[in-house]
Amino acid sequence: MDTYIENKVLIREFNEDRDVEAIEKLERSCEVGYRKGISISTNMMGDPLCRIRLYQTHVMLIAELVENRELVGVVRGCMKHVGTGKTHMNMGCILGLRVSPKHRRMGIGLKLVESMESWAIKNGAEYIYLAIEANNVASTNLFVLKCNYIKLSSLVILIQPISFPIRHPPQEVRIEKLNPYQAISLYKSRFGGESLCPADIDVILKEKLSLGTWVSFFGEEEWIGLHGKDGNHDDEFIHKTPSSWAMVSVWSTCATYKLQIRRAYPCKCFHTLSHARAKVFPCLKMQTRDLLEKPFGFLFLYGIHGEGQKVGELMKSLWRFTCNLAGNVEDCKAIITELGVSDPLKGHVPQGTMSCIDDIWYLKRVRGSSSDEDDRWTKMPHEEHLFVDPRDF
Asked: Which residues form the N-acetyltransferase domain (predicted)?
């Protein structure tokens, strides 16, 4: 895939053998901090593809100056198969668009996006979506005004730095780990309506970065079929649940990349990952004294769901449980989750948790007419019970 912008800039695919150092240099040039002398970077363990490699179909495109082969832009993309309960669709996802500060307002970002859209369409995409920080005016103008994306939903990022001692869940609350087959069945039954749930949820739950799925309920009740054997798809387990219950799955970033808050002086170079940095850094800026110069990872909580009148108590118990779980993971300093702003469970996360409302999902239909009757995804909000794919974070 080679595309030229007025014979001055070449858009091509990332070459893993020769482009790693150039990607690192570009990412560092785009690095920002929240105050003078401090910045945050992400050590991607030498793998610029770490955010998309877990998807079977993925690509990284770079923009290169023809005259001197300087790398001046990059964008990552992947293909997803998404289920909505009644239907399934192929969706393209755009991640990590970056353009060198010295080469902005030259049309490079637009050309990278158009090239990524062409790649997604060739791979069968019906829609393409992406997340943009709410205060990123330049990216919003690019995707909304120039590329015709529309707002899908707003999300809130909730972060809990790990500090000890941590309160344990109440004794009357039972917390049990599901086997992958139970978790898959439960997610498919509960996120099978209008949620954009990954059709390959089984791949996510069986990935080694996924530490497991836990449910909480009150010990005075029984969950029929909970202790069934692997592969159990008993209807009783799915439908005869306790009167109140909650569930969460946990994903560890620590083995993939680590964040580091550091002083802005010459030191060892780190690859950067703008999405994680932009999310985590604003919420941890009050903790920089403890985190400065020390690499740290975090656990990401996903697939959060609950039912019943007492779901709030059970969600708080799961939150405490995951805090204790994080304490046993090397270099893990926080637990993080991302929920739709209208998700009722958002109010049941412990009040001491820091939050940053800075993510907006945008969507564009690229196959078929947007006026089609079945095009409900560009015509209605989806801010409740969003299933945030941990591979994107």
From this structure: 9-210
